[in-house]
Amino acid sequence: MRLGKAIALAAAVVLGAGACASAGVIPDNEIVIGLDEDSTGPGASYSTIAGKTVRLSVDLINQAGGINGKPVRLVVENDESSPTKTPSIIRKLVDQGASAVILATGSGSVLQAKSILEQSKIPAIAPVVLSDAFASPPGNDYSFMIPNSLKQYAEVYCGAFEKLGYRSLGILGDASASIDGIIKTLRPALEKCATVTAVEKAPVDAADLTAQVSRLAETKPDAILVASIGGHFEILAHNTLSKIVPETQRFSLASIGNQPASWALADPKALSGMVYMGSISADNARTAELTEKVRAVKGADYQLTAYDAQSYDAVMMLAKAIEIAGDHQDRTAVRDALQQVSGLPSSFGQDDLTLSFSPGDHLAPDSLCGLVLIEFGDDNKPAHPWDSYQPPCG
């Protein structure tokens, strides 16, 4: 009988411990930050870049003594940029005691996260997502984002189109859920300054884009915008465009500039003259400082990307908020403190850029200065800021 009672008592203790863990108890002696990183899905090409720098940033914080004297521990899950998987991933991170979450995943997944963040009352920062809807009402009480938004992208593109007299635009996009959402957001804003002559799409793993590009060419647009998650599709798009419409000015989103490994896959001079929406400026001293920190870990030849800088700034803003809150066990207090982080000098964008959150604004950049139009050179590498137009500051 005594042995039976002992076994029963032990079982009760184990079950009780499991119940506490599943309830998402936040530890007192350490600060847990959750990371939703798409490491195997369609967003892996950029999410893993962000994820590595999130890890580096946490290491740097711990080397400096942690936050409020407590070490930071990162817990990682992977939703594969699948919106149907995202809610369960958020719950897993909550169950592991996370005080806040960093969402390094696709736009569709990030948008799907909003409601579960509200239900769980856990703040989340998206360092690479561009969709305005994530940080905007309704249901954005716990949703924050670091980069300039797609609507601000449209403002910059329109400024360039108006200066150069471009009145029509063709769009070539991949058929991923993330890009579908991006095009739906961008197109109405772009149509305020240019007629969209056609939108052509193809699967992310398409082997040939000749038909899509030929149909775009028939509409005779003044410029063409490539909207993709990057990687194979992006390079195939520019290889094809450079052959069929070599004289048409090409623009692209941020992906191509943040994926150096893909540049070598382009045909000779296929990227020459293409202008992408960058967020890295050689004139920003903080970008140079971060480059040295990242190269110490990733190698002396590593090309810093906006994903690196935005992920680093996301962790720093979250660390500042936890420091202000003074109580990482109260997730709502961490959210409230995030809304007090103001004027943080940015590691991306132009030198004057600062980052702030407030109760009415969960988009970090304080101006369009987080964006830099970058032109590719004949060597298929980013060469310099585009001479024809740059977004204004202030």
TrEMBL record:
InterPro entries: BCAA_transport (IPR051010), Leu-bd (IPR028081), Peripla_BP_I (IPR028082). Residues 1-23 form the signal peptide. This is ABC transporter substrate-binding protein. Residues 30-350 form the Leucine-binding protein domain. The keyword Signal applies. Keywords: Signal. Belongs to the leucine-binding protein family. It comes from the Bacteria. It comes from Rhodococcus globerulus.
